[in-house]
């Protein structure tokens, strides 16, 4: 099973679970016809306030915005050929490579925006990782370039294919 098939199966499973959850939590027809009581109003207001306080990361908002657009073949970028030679990282070789590098495991191209899956989370160029020690400089299908304030040159991380 290739990666695309795994993504499709996972998406179908999530949609099925969401449909079952929606079916279980949707109000019954008797709830819709009965008049609402004043006891339900504070709960509804509290739920609206909680929903209005939820904020999504920028990369998740991009994905949600892209859902309204029609499908194009450019949204799925194929993996590069295995024969491609990796670039040599810049620098004079005097710096020692850090051992706590993040894992680059996935790549998406949505609306000409490069989105990387780094340590299991979607990231955009310019974003800082959770611990604020690495900033994403460049996202490519084959590699990711990150920088650290203590290092002079950026570090290249190859795509780790599962």
General description of the model:
This protein has helices at 3-25, 29-33, 40-52, 58-66; strands at 104-110, 113-118, 121-123, 135-139, 143-147, 155-158. It is α+β, with helices and mostly antiparallel strands. The strands form two sheets. The protein has a three-stranded antiparallel beta sheet with strand order 1-2-3, with helices on one face. A three-stranded antiparallel beta sheet has the order 4-5-6, with no helix packed on it. The longest helix has 23 residues, at 3-25. The termini are close together. Mean pLDDT is 74; it is low at 79-86.
Brief sketch in words of this structure:
By secondary structure, the protein is an alpha+beta fold. Helices cover 31% and strands 19% of the residues. It has four helices and six strands.
Write the layout of secondary structure elements.
Elements: H1 3-25, H2 29-33, H3 40-52, H4 58-66, E1 104-110, E2 113-118, E3 121-123, E4 135-139, E5 143-147, E6 155-158
Antiparallel strand pairs: 1-2, 2-3, 4-5, 5-6
Strand order of the largest sheet: 1-2-3
Count of helices? 4
Uncertain residue segments: 79-86
The number of domains = 2
Strand content: 15-25%
Strand tally, please?
A: 6
Helix content: 25-40%
Major sheet, described briefly?
3 strands, antiparallel
Order of helices and strands: HHHHEEEEEE
Q: What's the shape?
A: extended
Mean pLDDT: 74
């Amino acid at each position: 099973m290739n990666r695309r098939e795994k993504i499709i199966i996972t998406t179908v499973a999530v949609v099925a679970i969401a449909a079952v959850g929606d079916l279980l939590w949707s109000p019954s027809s008797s709830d819709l016809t009965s008049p609402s009581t004043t006891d339900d109003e504070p709960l509804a207001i509290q739920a609206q306030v909680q929903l209005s306080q939820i904020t999504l990361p920028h990369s998740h908002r991009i994905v949600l915005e892209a859902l309204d657009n029609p499908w194009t073949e450019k949204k799925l970028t194929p993996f590069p050929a295995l024969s491609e030679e990796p670039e040599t990282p810049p620098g004079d070789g005097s710096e020692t490579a850090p051992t706590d590098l993040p894992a680059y495991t996935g790549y998406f191209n949505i609306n000409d925006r490069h989105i990387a899956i780094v340590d299991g989370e979607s990231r955009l160029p310019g974003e800082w990782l959770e611990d604020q020690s690495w900033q994403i400089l460049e996202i490519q299908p084959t590699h990711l370039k990150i920088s650290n304030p203590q290092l002079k040159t950026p570090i290249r991380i190859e795509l780790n294919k599962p």
